[in-house]
Amino acid sequence: MTPERTSTPALLTESYDYTLPPELIATEAAEPRDSARLMVIDRRSGEIHHTVFREILSFLPEECGVIYNDTKVIKARLFGQKASGGKVELLINKPLDATTYNVLIRGRVREGTRLTFAEDLQAEVLACYADGSRRVRFLNRDGAILSFEALLPRLERYGHVPLPPYMQRADTEKDATRYQPVFAHKEGAVAAPTASLHFTEPLFEALKRRHATGSVTLHVGAGTFKPVETDLITDHPMHSEWYEIPEATRKMIDTPGALLAIGTTVTRTVEYYVRTGKTRGECDLFLHPGNPPRRIDHLLTNFHLPKSTLIMLVASFLGLEETMKVYNRAIEARYRFYSYGDAMLIL
Predict the structure, then answer these.
(1) Region 167-193: what's the mean pLDDT?
(2) What's the CATH number for 3-73+174-346?
(3) How far apart are CA 306 and CA 317, in angstroms?
(4) Model-level pTM?
């Protein structure tokens, strides 16, 4: 590693580390949704306001367009067994094509292993990859391959909400609706776009009355929780996720005017389009202080894991030093962190 590559703290993974008291990890969601706390950061004045999420509209610039992610979380976690009787846990990461999926499996499996989750739901391991993921296809009771459309009702029946591992608890019936934005529409995500979780239906309707809004779809994969393990963040192999931008939203992005992204997923989707001109495909954009946003002006997001690509994306708006100051202030003020935690609005 050359001295030049290590001279910038903002590109060092260790710069994004912090210590979070365990009790600040939110394991249950705020009720009602918009009662979560909200930290508002005004980059021009340097002021920080502490408020509650239901007050967010009073802080948004009047002429600001708003883009949200309409992905819907599927029950992507399955518990089953091998023919030998050994127990396995499978987490769907993302589809690879019309009938095969990239998954993570807890339990020793190899190519050709058949897993049973229910009488009419099995999986066959087609390939094992070096990163620990597996390629599988799902089958019905007769061994016929299931399409995604045929798989979805079975996941709804037998699957579990794929809560993040740091919650350290099993999912409940309540999570089936609470770990889902009120505007979730298109099935495919295995993790929620968490900034969206704070909106109630009345608050979202009020937002749409005051601001031009547009949707994108980015199906969040399990890779969103993967920490950066390289010394330099620029050496991190960024995960990819499927996205699509409808024509109305594309026009909104192409029209001059300030834009607020509801979440990091929206930010990456819009910024990937700005760089490539592609309105659908696989997005693997890594935003950080060395690769800042070009189109998104404002960001609504949660407080993220240390050494994650998500906190590095926040730093692409605020800079490293200010990001870590904000996080330390949030800890001092006892904000709740991660997926079910409180929110931050960067203006």
Answers:
(1) 96
(2) 3.40.1780.10
(3) 17
(4) 0.94
Q: What is the mean pLDDT of residues 102-116?
A: 94
**Contact in structure between 67 and 252 (CB atoms under 8 Å):** yes
Q: Write the pLDDT tens digit of every residue in 297-309.
A: 999 999 999 999 9
How many angstroms separate the CA atoms of 1 and 4, rounded? 8
CATH 3.40.1780.10 segments of the chain: 3-73+174-346
Beta bridge mates, 127: 135
Instruction: Name the segment(s) of the chain with CATH classification 2.40.10.240.
Output: 77-159
Residue with tokens 């030998």: 84
Mean pLDDT of 259-274: 98
DSSP E strands in the chain: the ranges are 37-41, 48-52, 65-69, 71-73, 77-82, 87-95, 100-106, 114-118, 121-128, 133-139, 186-189, 213-218, 241-244, 259-262, 280-283, 298-302, 343-346
Q: What is the CATH number of domain 77-159?
A: 2.40.10.240
- 45-78 burial: b if 16+ Cβ within 10 Å, else e: eeeeeeeebbebeeebeeebbbbbbbbbbbbbbb
